[in-house]
Specification:
The chain is mainly α. It has nine helices and two strands.
Length: 297
């Protein structure tokens, strides 16, 4: 990779941008509304605590986001249960599974099994740790570690609680490729966790990389990985298609919450100068301390 494409290795990204887009630049009314009220809530808490408003805003944003996305997961579980009760499996899931069974060969089964293991209870934690350590070294900051811990932790919580809430049965073992899964089917944990972990990896790399073609390449590559992970679960008969779609949807929702929390923290951490599309200095609503700008935590 040409050195001109990257920021200096001796320092983290200076202003945390993706291309020309400053992540502290809120261009929509909805974004500015979230920023304003999160800052006010954090300011009230900061009056009795010792954290900076920026850090409290990050916690508030991801905390509220986790509650919202978890509620979406619980609602989705009820919806899928109703769909199944009305023969939804025969309309969508069963035909896709039947096609997958017909398309299998011993070689593709082996390749798909090796690939899907990357998203399992061993493979995905290893990927998450390697990505986190690598990003922390590139950034020379704790930001990737904090965001990945929040993202992966929330993803695990939603996977476990979603399965308990839905209790959906997996496809018949006669149509699945061993080793067989025993946990509930909804949502697909492999898919949800891959969406969050690799989505955060793509986000942090997009900030660090300078050239658009490299950012595009990273997003496309990791996006293909996430899509392939979900489809491999259906291909091997370990999940219904709707389990995988739910994993993508819940994962993207949670990923959006974590990214929003990071942007809120970044905005409140940085001195504001105004300008088109920017929120005025929201930190002025409190006398609490704030940390200097930059991606370090």
């Amino acid at each position: 990779m040409p050195s001109a494409d990257l920021p200096p290795s001796s320092s983290p990204p200076e202003d945390e941008r993706i291309g020309e887009r400053d992540l502290a630049d809120w261009r929509t009314d909805t974004g500015r509304f979230v920023l304003r009220w999160t800052a006010r809530g954090a300011a009230e808490i900061a009056r009795v605590g010792r954290w900076s408003i920026a850090n409290l805003a990050l916690v508030l944003t991801v905390g509220i986001g986790l509650a919202v996305v978890w509620g979406f997961a619980a609602t989705s579980a009820e919806v899928y249960e109703n769909v199944v009760d009305r023969d939804g499996i025969s309309v969508v899931d069963q035909p896709v599974l039947d096609w997958s069974v017909a398309a299998r060969t011993p070689r593709t089964e082996r390749l798909a099994t090796d690939f899907t293991d990357l998203g399992g209870t061993i493979g995905m934690p290893v990927i998450a740790v390697v990505a986190t350590v690598g990003l922390a070294l590139l950034w020379r900051a704790w930001t990737p570690v904090v965001l990945m811990l929040i993202g992966a932790g929330g993803s695990l919580v939603m996977t476990l609680t979603g399965k308990d809430l839905a209790g959906r049965a997996r496809p018949p073992q006669s149509l699945a490729v061993p080793p067989y899964e025993t946990s509930a089917s909804f949502p697909s944990g492999h898919t949800l966790n891959a969406t969050v972990v690799l989505g955060l990896t793509a986000y942090l790399l997009a900030i660090w990389l300078r050239r658009k073609r490299w950012r595009t390449g990273v997003v496309v590559l990791l996006g293909v990985f996430v899509v392939a992970m979900g489809l491999s679960r259906v291909y091997l008969g370990h999940h219904w298609l709707t389990d995988v779609v739910a994993g993508w949807a819940i994962g993207l929702g949670w990923l959006a919450c974590v990214v929003t929390g990071h942007r809120v923290r970044l905005t409140l951490q940085r001195p504001r100068t105004g300008g088109q599309g920017r929120e005025p200095d929201t930190t002025s609503i409190s006398q609490g301390p704030t940390k200097p700008s930059g991606p370090s935590n």
